């Protein structure tokens, strides 16, 4: 059988569409599994006006249920040949007559059991309730009620089309009855009757609806590239905007519009943001990437319209006029004048104003300048920190129209105010990365300003009890920590995470805004950093057990941590490691609860103990030099030398001797070895493969 189910409604917000389809598919799969109904595949389709499920090769009948549920042991279930309270209770819980209980022999003895057999029902009998519950249980980020309905949905539901082969699946929700009718495009289609799933796919296209998201997206892109550009032109198609536009329409028709070239005096990023974010237009550029006074709007229709073109041009002109006004007003004053205004802008109620934040960030920046040896850039770096947030109170950003341009506008205003190019670039780059996979800063001005700003946000919020939980992270602290980790790794900064956190705590204390115990905050922030570092290294496709082995030992210097991970990634591929790992794990497991490493040679009773002791002292000296010199490859090579002597040790003696002193001395010997094995990483955490 083939099942086709369509939920028709008023236009769904673009950001809801994909998740709704994913949830519908996942929920239906679960329901079929719970009802023992098999199928081959479930495909999803969707537009703003419809959510569609297409189920192929649906079983006509449920699978039979044949279960044997085990109960208590026979000697518990029966007393003197009669069912005990335990036996009767089990029968009641299984909803079977006590006489139907069976006795089953198992390797552990005899137990009572209840056998259940249920003949599978026809799938068609079960589908109405399955589809009804599917609708009622679907959740959205925001739902609504309408008219006199109690049903909550993202938008008012208009129809249900439910067809199993050629028959309607009948159900009703608050007066909305399922049927075999659907509707085409709102303006270029009509209502139509469906006789089968195959019939639906033909008629929906005839009624000017492209239900496949990928097909609709490719259609938009191809139409723009083939019909909307002239020679030497290109359309800027941002993937996120393309996805959004795809989810806003049922049939694409791109139209080219234009605007007054005088607006091009405004930085083109401002104009592009106006078009993309506010109007969902695609900008047109020349071959060199310079914005032209043209754009593409994608109409939800089958043919171009002069009215639509002129209407969109009029709306965009008003937007661009606002942008030009804000820009011209901002240029009347140098950027540095804005810094004083930040004294009135609250960053967080307990952490003070943004101006206070700048003062704290400057102190952290001075520490980083000294740590990284950037004294020659000190003036530009501190100037960058001082001006980095100045554009937040500009007309362009402060009016909330162009918040995505913070940093970019500051960089532009800085240059036009006479600041040097390094400071301008630093203001722009201190926001990088803004999201996963974003550009990373390239110059020390932006690198240090960005780390200083983020660490103040992160430690400050933890310091006043604003800590992420679940999906709640109002100050984007996870993103801040990830940003610091990525910048450190990309720029290869040899800095201490612990010292960085300590410096930030110091500035918060001096500012009088730290509300919680300093040591508790430090421990929590470091653990938070560790988890973010694990995420970053995992995204780099390193083995998770190796990441854990290294970072659980030490993650203070991320550059060194990455070097250790790289070395281990290569070492674990060698045969020597496969032979060494069982030895390391054996030593570690035996000594894991023993903490003493003081060894008394006078308690040795076997020659092998003396040999291992002398070997261990020599090995310890070697590997200590390796770790100090950061020669991790040599360190691991030295460890491979211990395999034979440790195996001989275990073959010769019994560690758990009856004499307590001898036993503890041997455990100390093994504990000493374990500490040698874990100087670089906790090698016991690496999995055998």
UniProtKB/TrEMBL annotation:
Entry keyword annotation includes Cytoplasm: yes
Localization annotation: Cytoplasm
Gene Ontology biological-process entries: glycyl-tRNA aminoacylation
PROSITE patterns: AA_TRNA_LIGASE_II_GLYAB
EC number(s) reported in the record: 6.1.1.14
Membrane-crossing segments per the record: none
Keywords in alphabetical order: Aminoacyl-tRNA synthetase, ATP-binding, Cytoplasm, Ligase, Nucleotide-binding, Protein biosynthesis
Pfam families: tRNA_synt_2f
Coiled-coil blocks: none
Annotated GO CC locations: cytosol
Main location: cytoplasm
Catalysis: reaction(s): tRNA(Gly) + glycine + ATP = glycyl-tRNA(Gly) + AMP + diphosphate
Any one GO molecular-function label of the UniProt entry: ATP binding
HAMAP family according to UniProt: Gly_tRNA_synth_beta
Annotated family: Belongs to the class-II aminoacyl-tRNA synthetase family.
Complexes and interactors: Tetramer of two alpha and two beta subunits.
PANTHER family hit by this protein: GLYCINE--TRNA LIGASE, CHLOROPLASTIC_MITOCHONDRIAL 2, GLYCYL-TRNA SYNTHETASE
Entry protein name: Glycine--tRNA ligase beta subunit
Lineage of origin: Bacteria, Fusobacteriati, Fusobacteriota, Fusobacteriia, Fusobacteriales
